[in-house]
Amino acid sequence: GENVEQHPSTLSVQEGDSAVIKCTYSDSASNYFPWYKQELGKRPQLIIDIRSNVGEKKDQRIAVTLNKTAKHFSLHITETQPEDSAVYFCAAKNSGNTPLVFGKGTRLSVIA
Amino acid sequence: DAGVIQSPRHEVTEMGQEVTLRCKLISGHNSLFWYRQTMMRGLELLIYFNNNVPIDDSGMPEDRFSAKMPNASFSTLKIQPSEPRDSAVYFCASSPGGGSYEQYFGPGTRLTVT
């Protein structure tokens, strides 16, 4: 089955700097790659997703890139702000009757 | 749209008691997922349903755990008897199904078993 590895597990950046979180997956049939943000005491919230027919997708300060050949995808946050501090999860799934497989999460701290 | 609804939001119970967690899917969604989250084990998938049918329950930790979908919009997760190690936040999530893979989480139920 699918296996998703995520790194780093923790990341600290200065406010205004960029943050990059990387994930690799094992199943070449995976074609959907969402990212979730979970603030302390809250639910995971879908912030951006990408499908395998697209190499990059951007939404304001966040972007996701996908390299299907290498089987890795990344989340990029530019001009980080303190409110970006949270745990971020990547996930992957294929088009079959299967659930999302999540990475173990990255705790991002943005230092003002 | 109210999103995924879970109840109760907090539950404190004594060891040995039965606990029932409830989840209402987003209208029109046909896939339902139950997760458990703890600091030690992270986010674990317990069971998921498509069109009311349980597809994979291999994540259910023990026979003390059971889940049902009595209709297309509602699910329950029951723990009987509960134990202190069941203390966690339990999330349900729903997805439209078909070619739409987006998955939306409910607010969670924080369960404490003393």
Query: Radius of gyration of chain A in whole Å, from Cα?
Result: 13 Å
User: What would you call the shape of chain B?
Assistant: globular
Structural class of chain B: mainly beta
What is the assembly state of the chains in this entry?
heterodimer
Mean pLDDT of chain A: 95
First CA to last CA of chain B: what distance? 36 Å
Question: Which regions of chain B have little confidence, pLDDT < 50, spanning 5+ residues?
Answer: none
Which overall shape of chain A is indicated by the principal axes computed on the Cα atoms?
globular
Coarse structural class of chain A: mainly beta
Query: Pair with the most extensive interface?
Result: A-B, 18 and 18 residues
Major beta sheet summary of chain A: 6 strands, mixed
- Rounded average pLDDT of chain B: 94
User: Which range does the strand content of chain B fall in?
Assistant: over 45%
Give the ordered list of helices and strands of chain B: EEEEEEEEEEE
Low-confidence residue ranges of chain A: none
If you compute it from the alpha carbons, what radius of gyration of chain B comes out, rounded to the nearest whole angstrom? 13 Å
The number of helical runs of chain A is 0
The share of residues in extended strands of chain A comes to over 45%
